[in-house]
Structures are given as C-alpha cells and as structure tokens.
Amino acid sequence: MTIQTFHFNPIMVNTLVLHDETGEAVIVDPGNCNSLEDARLAEYIEKNGLTVKAIVNTHPHIDHIAGNAWTVKQYGAPLLCHEAGMPIYRKAFAYGSLFGLPVEEMPEPTRFLNEGDTVRFGHQALQVLYTPGHCDGSISLHDANNHLMICGDLLFEGSVGRADLPTGDMALLLDMVRTKILTLDGNTVIYPGHGDTTTVENEKLYNPFLQ
Questions:
Q1: Model pTM greater than 0.85?
Q2: Tens of pLDDT along 54-76?
Q3: What's the per-residue H, E or C state across the chain?
C-alpha cells in the first residue's frame, strides 16, 4: 500500500491519501483550504488514476476537516466520522473564523464509524478504534497487515495531543495511547495528524509523556 502525505493549511495538518494497486483510495483528514491545495490533491489523485472510495475524519477539529466540502463535491465519496464529534463539527464555521480558515458549510456525514468497524478499499482494511481524549469523536485507524496506525491528534512523535480544548481529557488520552497504541507490535508505524511518522517502539522508549 502507498501512503502520500500532504501538509495542508496554516496549521500543517497531515492529509493522507492511501491507495493500492487496484487504484482505490481513501482520503484521511482533508485539510486543504484553498485552490492551490485543492489542486495539489487533485493532481496527485488524477496522476495516479485513483478512485476515492471514502473520506475519513479522525476527529472534528477544523484543521482536519477544512477540505470536507471540496473533497466530497469533487469525488462524490462517502464522508465517514464518529458521531460523538458532531457537536464540534457543527461549529466548524465559528472555529474556521477563529483560526483564519475559510470554511464552506460542512457536508453531512454519510455514515458514522464506531469501534470495531472496518473501512475497506482495494485489498485493504482499516480497523476503526474509538480513541477520545484529544476531543470527543476521535478515532484511530489500524492496519494490522501493513503494520500501521493512523491516530489523528492522539499521539505525536515525542509528544501527545492537546487536552485543553473542548471535550479534551488528558487522563483519558493517555489511557487511550497506552491501551490502544502501545499494545501494538513495536514495529507498527504511527501516522499522526501533524509532524513526522514514528513507531510504537520509539514512543515507548523516548516519549517523555509515556514514561
């Protein structure tokens, strides 16, 4: 499987495009917020002949959902997220104004994801884990076959997500990290919502928040 990472919007969210040899793809956290970023995403998808099968939000913060309207309109793919994040999602315009991100009216999710659900595309399967703590409605996506975890803003290289925003809870966040990420194989590659990739083993050894 191929994972292409784009760094979009002033908050530099990691927007991921996952695809395999079938040409089917999933977009995770579309943070594109202007025509130049839209064009970069579209160019990659067109160049690689991809068919977008789903658009997934790991959580409802504005930097991770700024491109929802454009991607849904452009590709007609279902929009998937966790229902618990909807109170924050519905305030996207207000949060966009606060952070200087132009936001259209947010499209309604097509389907809500829950713990144990699977997002499928091509020959791939991403298992959904419910991982609140950074905010309600936060999910992670685990691919056991390819040894990877997409965790939104739950965990970063050498750090953890903020818990001082609405519905954040640091004790819960750390519990989610310890029970749902650090229990994975040490070679599992972690794709966070911002910054560089890391591994479970690296975070066990060097993350000061987890010692």
A1: yes
A2: 999 999 999 999 999 999 999 99
A3: CEEEEEEECCCCEEEEEEECCCCEEEEECCCCCCHHHHHHHHHHHHHCCCEEEEEECCCCCHHHHCCHHHHHHHHCCCEEECHHHHHHHCCHHHHHHHHCCCCCCCCCCCEECCCCCEEEECCEEEEEEECCCCCCCCEEEEECCCCEEEEECCEECCEECCCCCCCCCHHHHHHHHHHHCCCCCCCCEEEECCCCCEEHHHHHHHCHHHC
